Amino acid sequence: MHLLITNDDGYRAPGLRALAESARALGVDATVVAPSAPMSGAGQSRRSGVAADWAWAEPVAGIPTIQVNSTPAACVVFALTSGLVAPVDLCLSGVNAGENLGATLNVSGTYGAVREAAARGVPGIAFSREFGGPWAEPEGWDWTWVPDATSRILATLLAARTGWFTANVNLSGTDRGADPAYTRISRALYYTDTYDLARGIIRSSIGYRLEDLAPDDDITAFAEHKRTSITLVRRD
């Protein structure tokens, strides 16, 4: 098995290192192809006909690494079509610094990468973790528990390859993957997004409404019950 590892926080992100360490713990071959810089909120976007520079980078957790100056989905296209990466059996994306849940999940570049891989016939798993501090300072969060939690979920999903083609995983720092809940994507908004006219940016904050949730929602499991959420998607 050969794994493609990518993310939307950039190839230097601590979450990418945690995911690479998890892959190494499984003893499988892998290649990292990740954005040169943070690309949060890029979804499945990639632009055809626009130059995207790439270069070999310092290996991440001992895994050969390529940085691409584009989105996570573009990194997947690069890995699957450039001829520089061995044939890919599974795409892993993350571990994102902050959870990706609910009705606006498709905005996530972390999830967008596995959607791009799935569109090209490659299964994938998107990993995100709960916020562990200031949004702009993930290097200062506690990442020590994340590789083990990721390895635990990854081993579980690889042992049950039937019944899913893509998966969205949100790691809770409370159960740390030991007591995951299998969920569906909530129809509710997890983040409240507003346009800040003065600063010219979209501002996001956690702001779901309890009355919009269902018992099997990813938001319910993760935010209300403090459990790791695993949402499995079958291939049509």
From TrEMBL:
InterPro entries: SurE, SurE-like_Pase/nucleotidase, SurE-like_sf. GO terms for molecular function: 5'-nucleotidase activity; metal ion binding. SUPFAM superfamilies: SurE-like. Keywords: Hydrolase, Metal-binding. The keyword Hydrolase applies. Signal peptide: none annotated. Its EC number is 3.1.3.5. It holds the Pfam family SurE. It catalyses: a ribonucleoside 5'-phosphate + H2O = a ribonucleoside + phosphate. Residues 4-172 form the Survival protein SurE-like phosphatase/nucleotidase domain. Belongs to the SurE nucleotidase family. This is 5'-nucleotidase. It comes from Nocardia mangyaensis.
